[in-house]
Amino acid sequence: MMKTEMVEDGVPLLTEEEEKEKKKIKRQASQKHANNGSAISEFRYESRKLWDIAGPAIFTAISQYSMGALTQTFAGQIGELELAAVSMENSVIAGLAFGVMLGMASALETLCGQAFGAGKNKMLGVYMQRSWVILLGTACLLTPLYTYSSFILQFCGTTKQISDAAGKFALWMMPQLFAYAFHFPIQKFLQSQGKVLVMAWVSAAVLVLHTALSWLFMLRLGWGLAGAAIMLNISWWLIVILQLIYIFYTKSDGAWSGFSWLAFADLWGFVKLSFASAIMLCLELWYLMMLVVIVGILPNPLIPVDAVSICMNLQGWDAMIAIGFNAAISVRVSNELGAGNYRQAKISVTVVSITSVAIGFVVFLVVLATRDTFPLLFTSSEAVAAETTRISIVLAFTVLLNSLQPVLSGVAIGAGWQSLVAYINIACYYLVGLPAGILLGFKYDLGVMVIITHIF
Question: Angle at CA 91, nearest 5°, toward 87 and 96?
Answer without folding.
Answer: 150
